[in-house]
Amino acid sequence: MYIILGGTGRVGSATAQTLLAKRQPVTVVTRSAYKGELWKQRGAEVAIIDAHDVDALRAVFDAAAALFC
Description:
Shape: globular
Strand content: 15-25%
CATH topology: Rossmann fold
Number of domains: 1
CATH class: Alpha Beta
Number of helices: 3
Strand order of the largest sheet: 3-2-1-4
């Protein structure tokens, strides 16, 4: 699983889209449920998390093979 922190931004979204096109598992971390829904429609898993919530981030990162931020 690839975790993309900032997956709704320009670089993060390009990274997530490239990985999804290669049929790689991706989790996009975002604060926005609306933007998260758009990524779900593209085939990504989504974690709605505030970047300051260390415990929630740690739980998502535990499932990661790689992290992009």
